[in-house]
């Protein structure tokens, strides 16, 4: 079984979900998720010294970090890996250190014009595994020919100094166990609150003082360090989904070091957590309706279990969700498929039309009492394979969001609940729940506000009109906020656009990154 890989990570808030998915391309997998940590390939040997670091304007107290010369060692296939040492806290660089895992594929032409750093999203996505396993589907030939393509695991993620919370059994219970009592009852709410608190406590206990410094602000400083130790005076960067927020934050902090930045599947940095929850819930509801239109028309590649109008199909899906909520479906590994896990499967598949066939099979199976395909999708979403979790993306996702998003006032939470119920009625009952952020050991330090990156070179912002996870209106907002923002639009479905079905998008992005050709602001591709 293969699936186009667009996994997302949800942080269930009290009445919201902060969602930012992974990369743009349809990545064919065999149902098993790939490991993050590179393995040295057979027959490879030798260490290659990197470029001399760029030290212009670096304060004396940061020189021990910026003045690193990377040592690249083979790590399988055509890839080389290295490690960069960064401060635990950029505001107090003598307070401790962390390690950042880095991977590169050198320019296929043998004549790199520079380094292209990439971020697949999340927050919490592994840039090492993104490049190692998926570069052929994610990064076009023109970019691979012209650039040394760089991926890294951001602080808190994967093979870098990482956030640690639950073991596999504890994570299974956290993500899949069915709460006692009826949905919304005091008993049900209390169990979810208990789980959220236990998760937050485990993260604090097992992460060795790291949680306070897992922020996008700190990570943007890491990004500048990477630029410098790679020998680049300016940053060339391709960021997807959450990676657009990281890239925009970098541009705000270092506008004079912006080279060619592409931000695909943009997040609006001025949007509050509650507004994010509403916008994304409506986005997924709309994507679900688009899917249902194709399903009842027989256009998803599998026999649709629903009939009639789109409204009829949505009503039948609501009935299915209510049914598995009341009577979860047993699976042969001992787990039960409840409505929340089924919704996870639905949302995971909505990231890309290429996954609609599996969604159809999952819904048809659930109606017949067979949860196997739904668990396949939910496990893929959660990074679970054969009872083990292949990454720490759930932990890192929570860590970043709990620090990046300030708590919203109670009246905003109540308004969010009302709007989601009204505008996303199918998704609404399964969209929110207890949040670990309520029990996080550190208060959030992030602020939501517009980013202008005054003085930066042109920044290309890419938005997809039918993107459910990072809705098009966010791309419009970010492009308008950025002093040098240039908006590129893809009229279509799915999360992010580059290296997908549109040659128009691909050509514009690659001409910008390779040649510096800035497309016309407002260019629309379909």
Automatic annotation (TrEMBL):
Transmembrane residue ranges: none
Coiled-coil annotated spans: none
Domain annotation AB hydrolase-1: ranges: 116-296
Family matches, as SUPFAM superfamilies: alpha/beta-Hydrolases (SSF53474)
Cleaved signal peptide residues: 1-35
GO molecular function: hydrolase activity
Keyword Iron listed: no
This protein's record includes keyword Signal: yes
InterPro entries: AB_hydrolase_1 (IPR000073), AB_hydrolase_fold (IPR029058), Pept_S33_TAP-like_C (IPR013595), Serine_prot/Carboxylest_S33 (IPR051601)
Keyword terms, alphabetized: Hydrolase, Signal
Peptidase S33 tripeptidyl aminopeptidase-like C-terminal domain segment(s): 427-525
The family this protein is said to belong to: Belongs to the peptidase S33 family.
Protein name stated in the entry: Alpha/beta hydrolase
Source species: Microbacterium barkeri
